[in-house]
Design a protein that fits this description.
This protein is an alpha+beta fold. It is built from one helix and twelve strands. Strands 1-3-10-6 form a four-stranded antiparallel β-sheet, with no helix packed on it. A four-stranded antiparallel β-sheet has the order 2-11-5-8, with no helix packed on it. A four-stranded antiparallel β-sheet has the order 7-9-4-12, with no helix packed on it.
């Protein structure tokens, strides 16, 4: 009897020791390291234009637009910026009989906006166009209507922000119109509105010239004034 009791006591002590060692090992693995963190500030540097055909391209072509070789971007600084706007070329055209739509020669014109404020309050990009006039302002292309239609909103593939809304522009007056608008929580990072079409015959950007308004051997030029506000505005496009 005594021999059996000793053996049972030895076995019990072994089990208790094993359980105790195992419990200590589990407790020792439960350690937390809490202070792993990152914090961001606004990025106010210049943001170069992206490739309108492939925003993921790390080396966009230079010039971006062969028809506008000196346009390397706006050079704007700040956390909310217009980075690139196009200069639209219609070239030399034969004077038409009747009203006529002329198509842009630019193949991939685009507008680029970047929002690196990191607050997601949205933004509003608008445009206003002047009258098409000759160099000294004595001749006007009366009734001319410039339009941007069917643009495609693009960004880098890794951008997880919601996209801004894009709108057609029909400059049938000297009023201001909205091209892109980012609502609350959207439009973060860089965004392009691209109007790609055929080179020398891009129907997405047109100029309507009314019969009897144009004179030959005169270069008519207009200025598009782009503006970016940090508070979204109601879209006034009908």
């Amino acid at each position: 009897m005594k021999k059996i009791s000793v053996l049972n006591l030895t076995a019990l002590l072994f089990l208790l020791l094993t359980f105790t060692l195992h419990k200590v090992e589990v407790d020792a693995s439960q350690v937390n390291s809490k202070d792993n963190h990152i914090e961001f500030t606004e990025n106010t540097s210049i943001k170069p234009p992206l490739d309108p055909l492939d925003p993921n391209n790390p080396t966009p072509p230079m010039p971006i637009d062969p028809l506008d070789p000196t346009n390397k971007g706006t050079g704007n600084v700040g956390a909310l910026t217009i980075d690139y706007v196009p200069s639209i070329k219609f070239g030399k055209q034969q004077l038409a009989n009747g009203d006529k739509h002329y198509f842009a020669q630019n193949k991939d014109p685009f507008v680029q906006v970047t929002d690196l404020r990191g607050v997601g309050t949205g933004w509003n990009l608008t445009a206003q166009v002047s009258k098409f006039m000759n160099s000294d302002g004595t001749k006007e292309l009366k009734g001319a209507v410039l339009s941007f239609k069917d643009g495609v909103i693009k960004t880098r593939s890794g951008n997880v922000s919601s996209a801004p809304e894009g709108y057609d522009l029909v400059f049938d007056s000297q009023d201001t119109y909205t091209l892109m608008q980012a609502g609350e929580g959207s439009g973060k990072g860089s965004w392009l509105d691209v109007f790609s079409g055929e080179a020398d015959d891009n129907e997405k950007i047109q100029l309507l010239v009314l019969e009897g308004s144009a004179e030959t051997n005169i270069r008519y030029t207009a200025t598009i004034n782009w503006a970016l506000s940090d508070i979204p505005k109601p879209v006034n496009n009908e």
